[in-house]
Structure formats: C-alpha cells, structure tokens
What we know:
- The protein is an alpha+beta fold.
- The model is unreliable at 230-236 (pLDDT under 50).
- Strand 16 (275-286) and strand 17 form a beta hairpin.
- The chain has nine helices and 18 strands.
Amino acid sequence: MLPSSCDTFVALPPSTEGQRIIFGKNSDRPCDEVQEVVYFPATDYGAGQKVECTYIEIDQVGHTFAVVLSKPAWLWGAEMGANEHQVCIGNEAVWGRERADEDEALLGMDLVRLGLERADTASKAVDVITELLEKYGQGGPCMEDECGFTYHNSFLISDRKEAWLLETAGKHWAAERVEGGYRNISNQYGITTKIDKEHPEMREYARIQGWWDGKTEFNFAAVYSFLTTARIEASGSRYCEGKKLLEQSNGHITAETMMDILRDKDSGINMEGMFMTTGSMVSVIPTDPALPGVHYFTATPDPDRSVFKPFIFVKDAQPIKETSSPSYGPDDPVKKKPRFQSKPDRKHELFVKHELVAAIMESYKDREQKIRDAMRQLEKKTMEKMEEFLLQGIAEPIYLTNQFSASVQEEICVYNKH
C-alpha cells in the first residue's frame, strides 16, 4: 500500500457565484478506516487545565470555539472541519528534504482541530498552528497501526474574507495569503516566492543546510522540496487536475461545482483502492457576516456514493450521534502502550448502513443507478432548503439544532427503501 495524500480546495470571489467562499476537501485514508463527523460546543476552561491530543498532552486555553469536525475515529484531531466563526481548515501530507519525525508529538490533524478551536479568523489560525508547532513539534504515526507512516503538513485555511496556505517542514514554515480567485493543494509544497508570514529562522536554516545559497530569490517549494516546483505542475497529477477543474468553472464556482470536483474519479481526486476517499467536506461561506455558513459532510467513503449533509452553527446545536463512533476510553488500543496492538470496531450507525448499500451498488448494477438517483434527489432537496438560509439568514435557529442528524436519518430512510 502506497500512502497518498488528500486534495483541498478554496474558491473566493470573483471565481465564485455570489459573494461566497467555497471550501472543499477529500480526506484520503486507509480504506478500512472509519471517519466520523462530530460537533463540540464552545467551552470555557479553568487556568492550568490540559488537553489530551492524540499522543501528547498540551496546555488548554481559557475558551474554545464550537467546532464541527470530520475525523478518523481513532484519533483526537481532524482531517477537516469548521468553527462557529466560519473558519475552515483542511490539511495535507507533505514530504521534503526535512525528515518526517516518528517521535510522538502533535499530528497535523491535531493542529487542524486546535486551529479551529482557538482562532476566529484564518490569519489567527496560522498563528495558532505555527506557535503550537514551534512549541510542541509535529510527529507520530498517522495511521492506526505500527507502520511508522509519518509526514509533515500543509494547511489550507479560509474565513469570510480570505484564505491562507500554510506549509511546514519540521518546525519551520511559510504562509501565503490568498485574497481572491481559487487555490488547491495536494501532497506537494506549493508556496514559491510569495511569502506573507514565515518562521524567523526558516531561510537561515535552509542556508546552513546547503539548500539555498542565501543570494538567489528565496522559493520555499524549490528549497524545501525533494524536487523543484515543476513536479507540482506535472501532467496527470491530482494537483494539476484539480486546478484544471477549478479553472473550468472560474467565475461560477458553487457548492455543486465543488462536490462534482470531489466526486471526480478520472482525475484521481476521488480516490479508490487501498487508500481511498473516506470522507468529504464542502463549505459555503457568505462574505456577509449576517448570513450563516453551511458546512456539508458525507461521513462516509466515496463521495460519488454518498450524500453531502448540512451542518449550520446555531445556539444549542445538539451532539451528532448517528456519525459518532464508539468510544473505548482508556482501554482504547491507541491509548495503551505499546500502541496499536489491536483494532476495535469503530463503525458508526451511518457507516454501517452505507457499507451495506455500497456493497449492493457494487454487486447489482441495475439497482446502483436507482440508489444513486435517490441519493442525489435527497441532496438536491436539502441544498435548496439551505439556499434559503444562505440568502435570507435564519429566522428560527431552534429548528436547526438537529439539522445534520435529521439529514442523516433521511439518508438512512433512502437506504432502507432500496
């Protein structure tokens, strides 16, 4: 099994329809891994409290924002998610000249969740993630086994007005601000000479290592990659294909556009095989702060055979049970040392139903299209309803406290009929 990375996208005006930011990500993970969608409300903490991340414990902050996360069920962090201030973050695995550390520290997925819990803008999320990176480091196995699969991380971060691309190599990093148009990232460094924030010692470290002569224009991707940026643009890469798909709809990018891109199998963006797309997310964020953001998640593998379901941050939003995996507490094999001695069943209610329907679709081609049509009809109906909120705002938030769970139940009803 050759581990691969994910694909993350953001489109901002004027590349989108209306004054909206569209964020999307496919999470490509081991095919037997369960991804859950969970909600955590805003919380206040006392002085001196700690938070236990996947492998290490760190200092907690006094207040965390409400977050909705799509996450591998075995770990603390998240592949992607959003917070109540409409900050969205997704991360990618990247490899370069700096060795990816196997020592247990913060995972890139932990940094995604920490950024969402602690930052109310995209720029602040860059600061939160880089400060934690410098203090605690990144490292540790990124799969639920003893294979030693480790990587550095890049992050695409957006809010209501802009996006930031943050790329890391060990504790060193560079960040680029994106104020308009579109951007996508895969598993290659993509920041070149436009650097808007950086680790203060990042350039000098590269010079000492002999990667940069200290005289020519500094190009982060060229200096820190194994290869030059030409590799990123190579024909056939998922990055290049994703960029083409965004370009095709430039000026008219919508949530539906982003879902189609995430479902695209010819490009490899919707990945199949031992590493596959195990969860997908699309967020629609109006630039008008009076309007809500709508965050769609599948919570199931293969977006082409999944339904994107909406979550909206409202007061008194309820926990999401149908896509929450069983908790094993201190008895979890991830928590016990040596770790990963066994794998418990982490399938949530929706995953079990979806797994059965996916098998039917695979085995009975005559039923496959009927099921897919029913799934798309449900998705379209729900998105039309969400469009009203995106245009007019929310008059009665109480009716949206269980919106995601209600959508899951409708999806399960479709599966039960077929």
